[in-house]
Amino acid sequence: MAEVQAIKKLDTINLISHLLEIRYSKQMADIWNIGLNLALRISDLLSIKFSDLQQDRLVIQETKTGKLANIKLNAKVIKAIEDIQVNHHDHIYLFQSYRNPQAKYSKPKPLTRRAVTKAFRIVGEELKVALGTHSMRKTRGYHLYQKTKDIGRVMKMLRHGSEGVTLRYIGIEQEDVDNDFINLEI
C-alpha cells in the first residue's frame, strides 16, 4: 500500500471534496468532509452508527487500539450529519451502502473501505497527490499542528503515544523545521 500524505493546501482540500461529489457522489464527499473533522481511521469512520451520536458528541471505541474516542462535533459536522439524517432517515449507519440494488433486501451495512479507497485514489491521481483514506486523519493533524505548534494536542487528538510518530505521521519534514527557523527571528 502506497504512503499517503496530509493535504497541506486548503484549496486542494476543497477541490478534493468537490471532485468526490461530482465524480462519485455527495456521500463520498461527506465521507471526506466529515472524516477531515473527526480524524478517525477509515474503519471507525465507516462504522459510525447514528446511535453512536449523542447530541454534539461522537462516542465510539476504536477498532485498532480499543481506545475510547469521545469527540465533540463541530458545526460543520453537525450540519452534514443532520442533512444525511433528513435524506436517509431509515439508515442505521452514517455512511450506509444503499446504491447497490441488492442492498435494499439485505441487512444494512456501511460503505466498504474498498469503495472509498478507490474513489480517493482516483481523485488523488487526477490532482497528482498521494491521496488515500488515511489522508483525512493526517490532514487534520497537520493543520492542527500548523495552527497551534502544539504536538501534545495533536498527539491527544490522534490518540498517539509518541511525538516522533505523530510528527512523521502528519508529514512534518526537515523543510518545515528549516522554515520555522527562518520565519521565527528573536
TrEMBL record:
SUPFAM superfamilies: DNA breaking-rejoining enzymes (SSF56349). InterPro entries: DNA_brk_join_enz, Integrase-like_cat_sf, Integrase_catalytic, Tyrosine_recombinase_XerCD. Residues 5-182 form the Tyr recombinase domain. Gene3D superfamilies: Intergrase catalytic core. This is Integrase family protein. It comes from the Bacteria. Keywords: DNA integration, DNA recombination. The keyword Repeat does not apply. Pfam families: Phage_integrase. GO terms for molecular function: DNA binding. One of its GO terms (biological process) is DNA recombination.
